[in-house]
Specification:
7 strands, single chain, about 280 residues, about 20% strand, Rossmann fold, alpha/beta, 13 helices, 2 domains
Length: about 280
């Protein structure tokens, strides 16, 4: 039986991130796991996960689920894309022992499924909710999953107005194209920015910097630069929000902002919220 996600990918309604995560899992090593652990500990504290229930919404490769598991959490991961579930399952089977880590194929937009999971001490969703096709409903369901005294750690694309709308059109067009035309379209979409970076490196008399950006990109991002470009150009559905909109939305649902780290461009704003007890 074909999953809803697979059908949407085939019909051009959605980009298949899972293929990338299947490739990425093969590159996961101790250093990458430790970096993920440091990232979580930096936001949640070095002992902030031990013995706590951790929900990973849109787990992707499963790397941050693994990091939470290694930091002592009881983890539940799920993703809408079956290839992402497979990637996470591969990582879990290779790196985890015992019964502290469960895994499902599911959707954050599926309210009965979310309700069935219960409440969690930490709800984590980095760069996922804006790709669901209904970001605010997804965020609402994520908020509802936070237990009293629990935390919500999310990252959502920054709304840049006209530029965001332009990229939404580009992403939608990419996904609607026949497969053989997608790669040329992606190359054309990023050509202006890549040319600008090349010219800047030449003017600095350091063209090797631009070459190194391509040849050593995987050391920093865990994937080739071309794969990252395809993921960006094709990443549809695509929504965005300002930090003020997200803070207001979560406050209305009983969550207080603890830490907000905005970005200046099209990247992700990061948020940590807490639900007060009582």
């Amino acid at each position: 039986m074909t999953s809803s996600s697979t059908q949407e990918i085939r019909s051009g309604e959605r980009f298949g991130f899972g293929d990338n995560w299947l490739q990425f899992v093969e590159l996961v090593d101790q250093a990458r796991v430790e970096q993920a652990e440091e990232s979580l500990a930096g936001w949640l504290g070095p002992d902030g996960l031990r013995g706590r229930r951790f929900l990973d919404i849109g787990c992707g490769s499963g790397l941050f689920s693994l990091a939470a598991y290694r930091l002592g959490a009881r983890v539940h991961s799920f993703d809408y894309d079956p290839s992402s579930v497979l990637a996470t399952g591969t990582l879990r089977s290779n790196c985890a022992e015992g019964g502290r880590w469960s895994l499902d194929e599911g959707s954050v937009l599926d309210a009965p499924y979310m309700e069935s999971l219960g409440r969690f001490d930490i709800v984590y969703s980095w760069g996922v909710l804006h790709h669901t096709g209904s970001m605010w409903q997804a965020l609402s369901n994520a908020c509802d999953a936070v237990a009293e005294g629990g935390q919500l750690y999310i990252a959502l694309y920054n709304d840049m107005g006209r530029e965001t709308r332009r990229w939404r059109r580009i992403k939608k067009t990419y996904c609607s194209l026949p497969g053989p035309l997608q790669a040329p379209f992606a190359a054309l979409a990023v050509a202006p920015s890549e040319l600008k970076e090349l010219i800047k490196s030449v003017l600095r008399l350091r063209p090797q910097d631009y070459v190194r950006e391509w040849t050593r990109y995987s050391e920093r991002r865990g994937m080739s630069k071309w794969r990252d470009i395809v993921d960006w150009v094709g990443g549809y559905p695509y929504e965005a929000a300002s930090t003020a909109e997200v803070v207001s939305f979560c406050e209305e649902r009983g969550l207080r902002p603890v830490d907000v780290r905005p970005t200046k461009g099209l990247g992700c704003n990061e948020f940590l919220f807490r639900r007060e007890t009582g």
